């Protein structure tokens, strides 16, 4: 061959692809990719180096994204690093690389994550295997399970307010671990450097907000304490309604559509003191989960929201507690071991005492002829015992009792004695009202194996209220004493049990399933009347048909499922049935949640939820009060059900400093009930309550946006809600759609917590919402019923003319609350002073409206009643 031929051959060899001459394990390759799936790396190797890959997509997934920077690296080393995390085995067959799974034995790490100081289990702690890029979180009992295929590994465990912990693991078999996390030394450390919980874009669940105990304690402290319900009311999509209503109105729903669970047991009234305080002491709350939509299949029975409150279990290692005394209420909390590291307890109690101050002022007025008594207070008691039988078995017993009481008594003595031989007339009037909850639960946790966890719960819940009045007076001329007495009461009770299973077969699946059974007992309205001067016994006016018992049975299954590298889903179904008065209702409720991760770690989420509700709250058309009556579905009134769709975006910043969510929703509600008239507790009940209600439909839709700052000396959030809520009932408003009483167009929340040095913390919240719809007459005219011949105005009645329901709106509601706390750490205890002001600028927000007639001008005026003015408070607390 000539020299020119040899030169051409050499040039041809240099330019010809490597695949002509083949490749071996020592072939040097250069690959630079950023956030690309493994499949793209294989395509690059095939294009640049002629390495062909053969595999089954059903058996081998190359969707995991990787970032590689390899310069002149040996091919075998690159492939090992690329495929090892997914346990993909590669074998050369001819000129191809055949890919398959290694088929190595799997191992499961499971156990509990605890507070190292107190032994409390931690809910929602993150357990992550960095080498495998796999992770999970602890369930509501602090249990986790993570299945992996690596021979050795380490876990990173983190939880907000605690120091991250690296747990080395040697996977020679399944392991059951108890991992203890050290809490950070102060709240300041928590705010600035606390390890964040799972980021929003990493959660398939949408429309959910979680408050841990640490986060809750950092919230604004008003009237001397942090309040769970008040904090929830300051979130987008959630409203407390008018001041004094004391309810939760979530996405256009009514208060009865909220499922409030305390250690898995339902609560039917969750406020004290007309909504100023919630039903429980925040110091005994471990975590609070609020679901506004996208409800997991394990929850059922309500349409609008789920508030899942987990209570603390008690310190397993040492005794400690706290005591606080304020101008309005006092409370204490104590916890500790009964048997160290085996049995613990926690007890807390609160009592308000404005009645003691006001009653003392009334009694100080000893003017002849008058006297009075006033009481308005609440109290609650929490108790819980936690016992560890073995590493696989735990038992919890919890109890709650809380009541509100109002008493007004007035006595008048007329010393003139006109027409009375005794020389004086006596009149005494007494009015009393009370309501409260009683709750008890027994739970057993059991670990069947490293992947299967169960909880069995037996619970009891009761809500009751009563009103009673007594009027004593002396009959003119005779001096005989007459005593008229009346009472009205209502009660509902639930007792039942449930079993829940948590199964984690592999990191791509988290399966939950279980069953719930509940017996409902309703006694919706019992009134009696008696004249104690008469021999006739008091008459019980509750018809026997109003005493109703219902049985409810539910089953559910759900799966958190990773479908691909960027696509995740939560799919489930909740099936339930209700037997009442010989009528059998049933419902199949599908649940679906989707999450897709976009570039720059933005997550797009969507959900569909079907919910069913077998109980109703029978209230007046005005505001919601504790005297509203709980009633079941009957033969005439079918269960309520709703369908809700939602979509949105979510992101947590890379440093965990900021969180942003934007959601839109649309919800339709069916078989809603409404009183045909403005009934109150003084309105006589018909033979059956369902004879005086209309059954109709409702709709609510809107959008919510929230920006939250979670780290630094300044924290807080801004939330805004734009929403509509409408209803339509046959026979009401001419069968036309009208805005419902919970329709609030705009709602804005500003919450701020500011650290001032080591000892001071300032907190403030400002709330605004549009006025709520009310029904007012458009005109009125005077009747001519039996006018007096001496005064033509006497005996005339005003007849109102109405056109549409909820045709006006109340005044807008807004309020500023501020508080400042000074804390000082002593050697063995700490003390704090809190000064707070509720309704700083004394905004007269409406509670109820009435129409009054002026007898002089014969004109009518709209009167607004306000019950919560400015309320300053000073609280002193000791923690030991």
Automatic annotation (TrEMBL):
Keywords: Cell outer membrane, Membrane, Receptor, Signal, Transmembrane, Transmembrane beta strand, Transport. It is a multi-pass membrane protein. It is found in: Cell outer membrane. InterPro entries: Beta-barrel_TonB_sf (IPR036942), CarboxyPept-like_regulatory (IPR008969), Plug_dom (IPR012910), Plug_dom_sf (IPR037066), TonB-dep_rcpt-like (IPR039426). Residues 222-302 form the TonB-dependent receptor plug domain. The keyword Disulfide bond does not apply. Its main location: membrane. This is TonB-dependent receptor.
